[in-house]
Amino acid sequence: xxxxxxxxxxxxxxxxxxxxxxxxxxxxxxxxxxxxxxxxxxxxxxxxxxxxxxxxxxxxxxxxxxxxxxxxxxxxxxxxxxxxxxxxxxxxxxxxxxxxxxxxxxx
Length: 107
Hints:
The protein has helices at residues 2-20, 30-42, 46-61, 80-88, 93-104. By secondary structure, the protein is mainly α.
């Protein structure tokens, strides 16, 4: 039962971070909840997922002037390739703190 509570908290944390990520619809669908459970089962840390959200959101914000607008992210699955990328990265946690600050104050 304790693992159930851990999984529930993990899913809540991941989905809340997803919902707050710039560029997303801000809503959570059933498929998003199921994918979060799969990521939990795979043992992907919530920190890795949150770092992937930050990396993807930053990339979406830093685009050439005049580039066509990007559509709204409608699914947690959008972030899967970036989650895999973050799993492979060997960078300091300071890098993701820096990106978070850039997202909060893009000026």
